[in-house]
Amino acid sequence: MSARAKVNARELLEKYSIKHPKEMNIRGIANEENLMIKEEDTKGHIGRIFIEGDAGIITIDSKIKEEGRKNFTIGHEFGHFRLAKEREFYCNNSDIMNFWQHKNHEQESNIFAAELLMPEEWIKQYVKWKGEALETLEEAAVMFGTTLSSMSLRYAECGKFPMAVIFSQDGRVKWTKISEDFPHQWIENGQKVNDYSKASEFYKGKDIGKEKDDILADAWFAKDRNFEKGKYFNEQNVAMKRLNAVITYVWEL
């Protein structure tokens, strides 16, 4: 399934001869592919698409202000248009933020959007490690015109510097993405955010800032088979108050 989504996205990049992030115009490509894009109150959905024949209408929530979030939402709905047999989709935050959910059509559309907006070779070529996660990924998200969360996942998947990306909500881990070369590969979904992590302070009502901190491996990797007691990592957090959630970045000292 993921292969089909990636191939489909790459066909569009080749069709429109797009070779650099700055050349990407997701709205323009969608229009060329017979998709109209509207912004209006979607009444609880972040995006939706209605498809008729070889054309369709994408509607994104007018309350979305960030251009990167608009772009990734358009890319996600575009994925439904290119890949699905159904004629309409209503997508919420979790459909678009969770790359590893059980709704196969939503997962496939996320893979399509990621491959279209952030091809692997572009990540390797254009995203340079800045010495810490947040500076690196915020700059990359702006360059690629996408969201911080989607860029974080994509960089963990195919970036040059190994890291773990952890999304927690309501005090528990919802999903993770860990680079293949990172020394630990196991964080259990559903586990409580450990007090050794600064992310835990957010769930106690404290301001956690965005500074880099040293943390013990116990904070996240105590259940990993390669766990080493007393080992330290770098950690950086971004609080998402609206979702009562935190994105955490962990990399080696």
List the helices and strands and how they pair.
Elements (H helix, E strand, L loop, with lengths): L1 H14 L10 H7 L2 E6 L6 E6 L2 E7 L5 H17 L4 E4 L1 H5 L6 H14 L2 H7 L6 H12 L3 H11 L5 E6 L2 E7 L20 H4 L10 E4 L1 H4 L10 E9 L4 E8 L1
Parallel strand pairs: 1-3
Antiparallel strand pairs: 2-3, 2-4, 5-6, 5-9, 7-8, 8-9
Helix pairs in contact: 1-5, 3-5, 7-8
Q: Could you give the distance between the termini?
A: 36 Å
Q: Could you give a short account of the major beta sheet?
A: 5 strands, antiparallel
Number of helices: 10
| Secondary-structure element string | HHEEEHEHHHHHEEHEHEE
Give the neighbour order of strands across the main sheet. Answer: 6-5-9-8-7
| Number of E-state strands | 9
Low-confidence stretches: none
- Strand percent estimate: 15-25%
Q: Mean pLDDT score, rounded?
A: 93
Secondary-structure content class:
alpha+beta
What Rg, in angstroms, do the CA atoms define?
A: 18 Å
